[in-house]
Design goal:
Radius of gyration: 23 Å
Low-confidence stretches: none
Structural class: mainly alpha
Largest sheet: none
Distance between the termini: 66 Å
Number of strands: 0
Helix content: 55-70%
Length: about 200
């Protein structure tokens, strides 16, 4: 064929080829997001402040991958992050919560700017996470729900024998659990998990 018929045939083939390439690329992205191999996870889920995370995880008997996952979910490792609810820093602590924690972790004369200091923020957040794990007898999912929704809400749900009532908290817990696995695979040696 020559002329318009040939051009139409080439156009259809090009569109089909482009569609096939896009479909393959889309499939590759979905596969990478689901499997999150270490090299891919490192691109999308960085680990900053690794020595701080490792140190406070060890001190407060926490899984360092869990601590990194909470930080990723809360602030994406942005030490200056602030929420509309007034939470500040890597672990998104409210000043009220942090002021209460300060007395248990050796903090002196708490000031708001302490929460933008990565070492102090992670120390306070790690202490709080350990407190929640102890309170809920090691039930990580319940502790994470309390970290997100507040102890009062979780205590009320438990007393009423109800599941978590906030869809955003259910999603939060699932996301942190997924991130924990990603950080464990991608940063085992940096988090002191290798070996």
């Amino acid at each position: 064929a020559t002329g318009p018929d040939r051009a139409d045939g080439l156009g259809v083939r090009r569109i089909a080829l482009a569609a096939a390439v896009l479909l393959a690329a889309g499939g590759a992205v979905v596969y990478l997001q689901r499997t999150a191999p270490p090299w891919y996870a490192r691109l999308w889920y960085p680990l900053s402040y690794g020595s701080i995370v490792r140190g406070h995880a060890a001190h407060y008997r926490l899984d360092p991958a869990l601590l990194a996952a909470v930080i990723e979910q809360e602030s994406k490792f942005d030490a200056s992050a602030r929420s509309s609810a007034g939470a500040v820093g890597l672990m998104q602590l409210t000043p009220q919560t942090a002021e209460g924690i300060a007395q248990y972790t050796g903090g002196k004369g708490f000031v708001l700017s302490d929460l933008t200091n990565p070492e102090i923020n992670v120390r306070y957040g790690a202490w709080y996470l350990r407190h929640l794990l102890d309170k809920y007898k090691g039930d990580e999912r319940t502790a994470l729900a309390a970290y997100n929704a507040g102890q009062e809400n979780v205590d009320r749900w438990l007393a009423a024998h109800e599941a978590v009532q906030f869809p955003e908290t259910v999603a939060y817990v699932a996301r942190v659990e997924r991130l924990k696995g990603i950080y464990r695979r991608a940063y085992a040696s940096e988090l002191g998990l290798a070996g």
